Amino acid sequence: QKATNVRPRVVGSRTEVPLWNGERVRYVNLDSAASTPPLAKVRQVVDEFASWYSSVHRGAGYKSRLSTYLYENARDVVMRFVGTTPRTHVVVFVRNTTEALNLLAHRTLLEEDELVLCTKMEHHSNLLPWLRKPHEVVQLTEDGRVDMDDLKQRLERHKGKVKLVTISAASNVTGLMADIKAVARLVHAHGAKLAVDAAQLTPHRALSMGTPGTADCIDVVAFSGHKLYAPYGAGALVVPATLFADGDPMLVGGGTACLVTSSGVKWATGSDLEEAGSPNVVGVVAMAAALEELMRYGMDQVAKHERELTRYAVRRLRTVPGLRLFGPTWDSMLTGGEDRLGVFCFTIDGQPYEKVAAVLANEWGVGVRSGCFCAHLYVSHLLGVSDEDAADSRERLISGLPVDLPGMVRASLGLANSKSDIDRLVSGLQAITRGEIRAQYEHNEHGDLE
Ligand code: PMP
To answer: What is the dihedral of CA 290, 36, 146, 129, to 10 degrees?
Structure first.
């Protein structure tokens, strides 16, 4: 569809929240890298669908047929969103990126001496499933990028034995975007397939899987609806139609068999085989509505808006004394060089990261996240924690001893943010550096600072 200039409206952008002193302020959401609120259009679709949804693939009634139609239509929407078609790919609906990547790992059958490569930059969802398989972890350059030479050397060392390389298209810690086409060419030249964790990239930039079989195509893509302005509980794994032809699905049950007799089972094929049980039809329809709305507006427009905000945020964050912004090339982004997502991980000299996050929430109405962002290897690398120190912390945790876990504060941008949101963040950070902390903070029973 043709792009229009009306930016999709995000629900809750004017919600007021209480501060420590009871005053109420407009909530500033700077945590889009974790989840995004729904688009107004998504809320409308979910509201209307509430009177209509019913079991998909099972009922003969009108509502079931309508639900089945919308559910199946959502596969086409997903395909359009990632630039592919049902002629070559299958969309499997899952709960989220984590489930998508676990399913992919489950379905990745390795012959003796075959292996998978992932990277040290990955979110745990694209790391831990592969640690259960023969694998190697591609190292990072000192400044925190995936080391392409290391990737190449590993592909060469295991000539023809690397079945799959799996990498995130954009980091949830530094907002760095991988040069996916360059990675694809390298991976395919060595006879491997490329899977992309697109959880962070898809809400912010257009992604195209390209023509299957070409050197720079992406073979597999995974993403989550809740980072794409839809509610929780729906995500997609897009795979070549042939990839899951052999082997067992992760779950079996309702919908995964064509015929069950006492002598055996005739299994279903394609997405039916992977989606055991009653699916999340509302979640899937909501996710498709969000994707349609983003496509209507145009991902280039989304990128343009966020790029401008990102540059503004870098300039403003630089004014905060003692603020250390992690990841390379922020300057290059400012001068129109390398593109980056608006994901800012930082520390402030002398201020514990979790306290900074708590003060921003309680005294400034700004929602950020702090910690290691489910990317322990990457955060440790950026903070310069040695492997020995990390191993020592692990031993202490196992023994039940207290550990000061490394961490950072993360502020991340989305479609609904404006310059005034960044101004509020920066005012809060500047006050913190001046020692203007008005409330008392203590750990609650969950260990969070309040
Ligand atoms: N990969 C990346 C890069 C992410 O940022 C996230 C979410 N933080 C995930 C995977 C996991 O997504 P989900 O929690 O929706 O499974």
So the answer is: -90
In this predicted structure, the answer to whether residue 2 has a pLDDT above a threshold of 80 is no
Domain ranges of the chain: 16-30+298-372+407-433, 43-295
pLDDT score, position 5: 81
Locate the ligand 1 atom nearest the alpha carbon of residue 224 and give its number.
Answer: 15
Q: Which of 30-39, 75-84, 254-263, 438-447 has the lowest mean pLDDT?
A: 438-447
Q: Ligand 1: distance of its center to the CA of 70 in Å?
A: 26
As a whole number of angstroms, the distance between CA 155 and CA 251 comes to: 32
CATH 3.90.1150.10 fits 16-30+298-372+407-433, yes or no: yes
Strand partners, 119: 138
The residue whose CA has the least distance to atom 7 of ligand 1 is 34
Please indicate whether residue 172, judged by its CB atom, sits closer than 6 Å to ligand 1.
Answer: yes
Residue nearest to atom 12 of ligand 1 (CA): 97
pLDDT tens profile 417-440 = 999 999 999 999 999 999 999 999
Sequence-distant contacts of 354-357: CB under 8 A, at least 24 apart: 354/407, 354/448, 354/449, 355/437, 355/441, 355/449, 356/409, 356/429, 356/432, 357/409, 357/449
Element (H, E) at 355: helix 353-364
CA of 201 to the centre of ligand 1 (A): 10
Domain 43-295: assigned CATH number: 3.40.640.10
Phi first, then psi, for residue 415 (nearest 5°) are: -55, -35
- ipTM computed for the complex: 0.99
Q: What's the burial of 267, exposed, middle or buried (CB within 10 Å: 0-12/13-18/19+)?
A: middle
Query: Does 200 sit in the ligand 1 pocket, CB within 6 Å?
Result: yes
d(CA 150, CA 132): 22
For residue 100, the ligand 1 atom closest to its alpha carbon is 16
Given this model, what pLDDT does residue 447 score? Answer: 78
Q: Is the CB of 199 under 6 A from ligand 1?
A: yes
pTM of the model: 0.96
